[in-house]
UniProtKB/TrEMBL annotation:
InterPro entries: PEBP, PEBP-like_sf, PEBP_euk. It comes from Castilleja foliolosa. It holds the Pfam family PBP. This is Protein VERNALIZATION 3. Transmembrane segments: none annotated.
Length: 176
């Protein structure tokens, strides 16, 4: 598949939230009922009330560690995203070959509750150089994944995915 047709590029996740990168690690995200979430999946808030199960590829030698960042790229609405990026979840020190349950939850999972428009929820995975001491962000709104990555020497993501989320009875398009 051509890079310019990758779902993260077409959806503008690369550009709005992330720099261009090459995936080097497998990232698998599942709903609480076990269904896999794919890039561009369309989900309702009731489907993501509980935190997703996130599985990270690689060997489980506990020497390779990862950080997971989950943000809403369109808060509070796609037509006026003045809170973007809204931080929904932050987990550090996740050993390769395991899941987020083995990491340190720095910011607890907050389920998406979009009130208008279709929101892109982005999960970005970064490889750490060593165990991280990360201070809790002072607020969830206006988080910046790129700045966070630079501040903690994480570099480019090693994997990422996104899904679309819109209000329970909503049917709208990209813009609110």
């Amino acid at each position: 598949m051509a890079i310019d047709r990758h779902p993260l590029v077409v959806s503008r996740v690369v550009g709005d939230v992330l720099e261009p990168f090459t995936a080097t690690t497998e990232l698998r995200v599942l709903l609480s009922d076990g269904r896999v979430i794919y890039n561009g999946s369309s989900l309702r808030p009731s489907q993501v009330v509980g935190r997703p199960r996130v599985e990270i590829g690689g060997s489980s030698d506990f020497r390779t560690l990862y950080t997971l960042v989950m943000v809403d790229a369109d808060a509070p609405s796609p037509s006026n995203p003045h809170f973007k990026e809204y931080l929904h979840w932050l987990v550090t020190d996740i050993p390769g070959g395991t899941g987020v349950g083995f990491g340190t939850e720095v910011v607890s999972y907050e389920s998406p509750r979009p009130s208008m428009g279709i929101h892109r929820l982005v999960l970005a995975l970064f490889r750490q150089e060593s165990r991280q001491m990360v201070s809790v962000p002072t607020r969830r709104q206006n988080f910046n994944t790129r700045e966070f990555s630079q501040l903690h020497n994480l570099g480019l993501p090693v994997a990422a995915m996104y899904y679309n989320c819109h209000r329970e009875n909503g049917t709208g398009g990209r813009r609110a």
